[in-house]
């Protein structure tokens, strides 16, 4: 009896301890979670190697994104339906060697902006005079994103504009203006798209492009025939928009070949990115889908093969909103970062950091999600993210923006959202069944994440410490060396918010090198070209991208941080044509302009 | 949730084959059913967060039950109940971390041994564990809400199978009263809040509720004994949930059962304790009268 009582007392004490355990874990996580308070510039520089200053106004950029006003039947939930469209892409449209910024707007009749870099720290909006501002006219839909690629290899980047509406292709006329070539190119009349990218999937030296539909293409969000337009499942929806793969025929025309090429998904695509994951010379395609699993297609140069399930990335359904590649371990292999939703007490999806499994490669490539282990799992309602070496220490860091709908700070829509999201498809699919938002926030006013890679397998959030303190509803992030200083600045597009330019200052002890590539046999944008840099006994691989993150495109120039006292052994460039070019002992702190050798 | 082990035995062995299967031993019907849900859901929709996490929850639950059962009662317990608890935790808990699965299972089972009144545990183990972990670790844990794909067919299959099994276990009235009450309160909430009634009904059509109404609220060990009492209690659970939902509590059903279930058990024990002396006195008086 006494023994029984003793056992009960011990079990009770353990029981109380177990109930206290989550609180202790939370306390420890908060303690190790990184710097929470803002540091002064010098302290941030000394501690983290970099700091940001938000300089948009000083740079002459006063862009504020406007959201669309859709069909009145959607009015009760308008804030969450009309919650995308802020995008940013980097392009040197006039080939002056200085990156410019293109941003989309989404109000009916609102104008997009092309900020021309004036080389003195300021920008001037030239979209109007270039003919690519007034692209959101009623009846044509509104902008959702833009990506740049030189489809005719004339040396000037052309503009592919995606919308909830009529997609547009604009030819860059020598940096002096743009001509709409949508009809000649053969683009479809209406696509509700949120992601697109340029890539040369078949290696013919001509850029092709991919467009991922979100809402079905027969839905005109301004004139609804039915309110049954929502996903038919929160995690398994397959009633989204179709996918398009446009093969470049070389005469200014494109042929839609998605079905022949093996891409037939109707999931709700929000982000896509392409990179050669297996060393085949062909870019593989990753699609992050909302309301479902991600998709990965291996590309054999002609056909795409859905390997989502076998590689592991297509198993656990979440709310994918970002796709970005990065060689985070400096081992020549790309990880993929997919952002999802995490809201305390309601929904903890966690973001995914898909890392290639040890010992797998080629057709046998497998991924495992190590976001939690590496510390990049929880980022609120996460949207756009990009890898880049923000402090030039030789390892890739991660910039993530987030926040969905910021309205009333005191009232949350989450309860109603969780209620409807768990319902049967016949309920969830109909917008009129969704409770009205009535000015409530849904994961609003969130703090951003800037995860610094410590080079030892952990990422530490230093956003507040290095000056990223905004709480706008972030959508797209692009990393770019805006003023050719050898550092990566961050440009952030916010939904119904200002375009932010975070100017980076990096400790001068850390060196860098950049590569500005131009294809000859390959596509002239060099999209798909890989540079593997070998220094100090390590190597890092980067690839020129035709679009990555969420509704974003980084600077096409590849930026490598090198840390202190770097000894560069070589840079190996693998061009999309298959040519291999080796540069021995390239100089540090320089931007190397490399043209593909004949 | 715990095994329906104390339900009355079903029909004798000469019944039809499917009835014989159902009446083999009621203790194993619930584990088999919930395993079918798990396997079916995972194969069709990839329902589980991961095999490892679910296995971890099951192993932790069974191991805890074996250890505590041996310590407290000096014998190895039947692990059917612990299996259901573990598998329920594995299905319902959604967390990117591993530790919540272990902790939730261990808390659930330990509550069965620690939180006892007059020899009876008063909280449904997995209801206690899941409520505790949701309340204490909201930044790490959520529960399953949509893993059946929001589609009609799987829902209908589970409802049909679950209803048959619960009926065979003679506890369908609990599920039935709860569903009717929930629907009535859903319309009342819709009237009060102005939300579409479909959105108020929506949670009931999700998979979380299928587990809740077939396994949690029907647990014989933690429900009152009389049929009338069970009906009243489950109505009160639905009412408490109604009040919590009006205050926008996301996990209202778990918390409602957490609050109402033990209270009902305590009331029943109190009533039993009052009846017992009275019954004793009556018997004594009767005996006296007889003697006289």
Question: What does this entry look like structurally?
Answer:
The complex is a heterodimer of chains A (598) and B (292). In chain A, a hairpin with a 3-residue loop joins strand 20 and strand 21. With 598 residues, chain A is mainly β. The model of chain A has no long low-confidence stretch (mean pLDDT 95). The longest helix of chain A has 31 residues, at 2-32. Chain B is mostly helical and 292 residues long. Helix content of chain B is 70%, strand content 3%. Chain B has twelve helices and four strands, in the order ααααβαββαβαααααα. In chain B, the strands form two sheets. Chain B has a two-stranded antiparallel ribbon with strand order 1-4. Chain B has a two-stranded antiparallel ribbon with strand order 2-3. In chain B, a hairpin with a 2-residue loop joins strand 2 and strand 3 (120-121). The longest helix of chain B has 40 residues, at 252-291. Chain B starts with 16 loop residues before the first helix and ends with a helix. Chains A and B meet through helix 1, strand 21, helix 9 and helix 10 of A and helix 3, helix 5, helix 6 and helix 9 of B.
